[in-house]
Please model this.
Amino acid sequence: MYRFLVAVKLSLMCAMAAHAGELQNFFVAPLTTELHRATVSADADAYAVVNCNGLIANDEPDLSKFDKDGFLAALVNAADKRKKLRLVCRYQVPANFGTDLRQRLNKQLKQVCREAGYETISATEMSTSADWRSEFQNVLSFDQPLHANESLFENELVRAYPIQTQLSKHVHGDADCMVKVFHPIDGHTTGISTELASSIRQFVEQSNLGNREAILFKLSSTEAGSERVDELFNARRPPQKPDTDIPVILDLYKSSVAEYKPSAAMELALNLGFERIVYSHSPGGGAPELLVGKEAPSFNLPTLDGGQLDLHEFRAGRPALVTFWGLACGPCRIEAPHLTQLHQRHGQDFAIVAVNGYDDDRDSVAKYVANDELSHPIVLNGGSTADESYHVGAYPTTFWLDRDGTVIEYEVGFTSAKRLENHVLRLME
Model:
């Protein structure tokens, strides 16, 4: 704990004024919480971001304004075991630096990180229009608790975390907690369900949040749901009573209060004691919700071994998972080994079919399957099936079928192996 507190303190000191009271060109933090592991890096020991615009002069790397000693001290104290560092080389647009210049500067920064004792440096570039000073002054002004709690809360509806560290404020913005809603907002969504509201309330109550100013929602949607996101999660706050006795202004205020109607999310947030909401929205397109409650469209598609797979015959009365994937889809490739494990454990009683919706060629898919030692059933040439029959708009999209072949639910994206298996076990009951 002492080392952790020292690391936090040094990260703060090193990112603060070292030269004439100016904000320094870097920020360093240890990776210690579940939120850090889930959203920054699963295996790094520390995180560093460098304001590269401040280290370039006359189209050349110029570290004369870089407090190298302070940077080294922050890196050293950020972790006891310095095996891996997540380094972000931050470039602010519209400044345009050539590839060669960026590569040379990035190389120099990686060398400094090695001097701090890190065995592996995972370096990436980030381009942003955000001003370094305004962003990190806000981050550093946050009074991080000594015992910051950013523990995972998860059930079938949400994955949520408190936001209590400077690093998480930097990554996720100025909110006190983050709630990822698993199910996309779709054409069937008419509000925030009682079950979803109850899950969010349970998370907030269990987290013992010190501050309840803002709650951040992470949302996805189908094509029809995209238009409903702002309606349900509109962040417009209640009118604030003016500090005046002027009758005209008071009348306007009363009129605004009478007309104000909070969105469903804003009403929930206010009831939970928050002052405002923010949300990020990833529109996915498609209309997979149209299949819920209907028989899953059958298909007959080629397998890797040259045969054909007919969905109806293959299911043979078993509940099933039909997922649409592609080689260029990162989450699909993360999901695939878990599908193989589920197939190996439950294949006799539960049908799994992975439909290649990217129309990747047979040889490329076969090479991937062999390299990753996958054994769950895979079919090819599924692009038309994905688009026309299953209305897929994002990958992976997974459909859950009961024993009668009726689609009872769908999910977009991959969340965890545990969620997959829980779905499988419920359908097998």
Remarks:
- Residues 1-21 have pLDDT under 50 and may be disordered.
- Residues 140 and 330 are 34 Å apart (CA to CA).
